[in-house]
Design a protein that fits this description.
- The relative contact order is 0.19.
- This protein has 2 domains: 80 residues, no CATH class; 109 residues, D-amino Acid Aminotransferase, Chain A, domain 1, CATH 3.30.470.
- It has a 6-stranded mixed sheet, with helices on one face. A 4-stranded antiparallel sheet has the order 10-1-11-12, with helices on one face.
- It is globular.
- With 202 residues, the protein is an alpha+beta fold.
Length: 202
Amino acid sequence: MSDFPEFKSFAKIARLSREIVITEKIDGTNGLIYIDEQNNIFAGSRNRWLWGSIQEEIHNDNHGFAAWVKENQKKLLQLGPGYHYGEWAGQGIQRNYGLKEKRFYLFNINKWWDRERNGELKEGATQEYCPSCCYVIPILYKGVFNTEAIENVLNNLKKEGSVAVPGFMKPEGIVIFHKASGQLFKKTILNDEKPKNQNEHS
């Protein structure tokens, strides 16, 4: 059998009618915080490192994200070792949300919950408070996948405005996490049918 090519089996197909979690899609810029086992902390954007505590200077920052990580590194170490992804949003970034400051919204809703804004969403002892300098992406729906629920959440967001920043009436859209497949999907309120490069706020 040594002359046979490598056998690759067909991947298992996830069942569509399984739990989904819908969160608000924040229109900012991607941020990454990495903490190693020695408590060194690093700040990155979507595709590059911006700064690390192993150095002093910040080079080519992304809307001040690295400077914010550097300033708040003691609080951010509460995140613990690993990769922590989120959205850096607010003043001067994309649609601004009417904010006079910038905010970092953590994506990992299964680990973190927000003491001030999402406390009612705590679901068991495995979740922890996020550091006081961070926010958590708001959960808008949890339940079995169905398109009606998705459209209802999107319409409510359009009608009532942002949950992340109450009072801001031009939210971007939603992100749908399908647990069985481990996949993320997004829907935007405007121009959802257009490819990303044709959509200003994707």
